[in-house]
Design goal:
Layout lengths: L10 E7 L2 E8 L10 E6 L12 H11 L4 E5 L15 H17 L4 E7 L1 H13 L3 E5 L18 E6 L7 H10 L5 E5 L10 H12 L7
Parallel strand pairs: 3-4, 3-5, 5-6, 6-7, 7-8
Antiparallel strand pairs: 1-2, 2-4
Helix pairs in contact: 1-5, 2-3
Length: 220
């Protein structure tokens, strides 16, 4: 099967996945922002909780990274939007992510690859991280306590974790307790007065992401 080429301009496309087509949205930095050799693949939360590639937290995270020079790739996990298949509790979604990553690495072999995920998307990226071995990892409100985080083999790459202290979906204390058990700990940013979906805190999230990853950026 002939796979699509990685676009040179911001584009939407369809990529063959493990159980059918996956819907992708690829965006490049705008204006005079220098383009870095960096692709960030972002995963969204559950569709039952506002999850799609259009989720406002995911789109803000992507925008924040493009402002630093990254190319971002958001995609709909199976059963969401135009992506085929149905919810598979993280197992099939991990396979979807691995298929997307494999395509990116074939198309952009000289670019650094980062993974980023919000809520269920953070779970999916963490499950895949050992196999992918990304150059950096970003986890936003990982749903510790709702999914099995105890048997993950995590990479030792730079890792940023952002968690709201008033998260009504994910227990912040469960997240902090889990982090305390890890040998390789992330750079943890606790955002005070912040709910799960970062209501009225999206600009603060932008700042936290940009400040947290700026030292990890590859040179142009």
């Amino acid at each position: 099967m002939t796979l699509p080429a990685f676009p040179s301009t911001s584009s939407s496309l369809s990529l063959p996945g493990p159980v059918g087509a996956l819907e992708l949205s690829i965006d490049l930095p705008e204006g005079d922002i220098p383009l870095l050799p960096l692709v960030v693949v972002l995963c969204h939360p559950l569709s039952t909780e506002g999850g799609s590639l259009h989720n406002k937290v995911v789109t803000m995270a992507a925008r924040s990274l493009r402002e630093l020079g990254a190319t971002t790739l958001r995609f709909n996990l199976r059963g969401v939007g135009s992506s085929q298949g149905s919810l598979d509790q993280g197992e099939g979604e991990r396979d979807d992510l691995l298929a997307v990553v494999d395509w990116v690495e074939q198309q952009r072999p000289d670019a650094a690859l980062w993974l980023a995920g919000f809520s269920f998307g953070a779970y999916v990226t963490l499950r895949a991280a050992h196999d992918v071995q990304p150059d950096a990892l970003i986890s936003i409100a990982p749903p510790v306590g709702r999914w099995d985080f105890q048997h993950m083999v995590l990479p030792t790459c730079p890792w940023l974790l952002v968690q709201g202290d008033e998260d009504e979906v994910v227990d912040p204390q469960a997240v902090y307790a889990w982090v305390d058990t890890l040998k390789h700990k992330p750079d943890l940013v606790r955002m005070y007065g912040t709910s799960h979906f970062f209501h009225r805190k999206l600009i603060d999230l932008r700042g936290a992401l940009q400040h947290g990853v700026k030292h990890w950026l590859p040179t142009a």
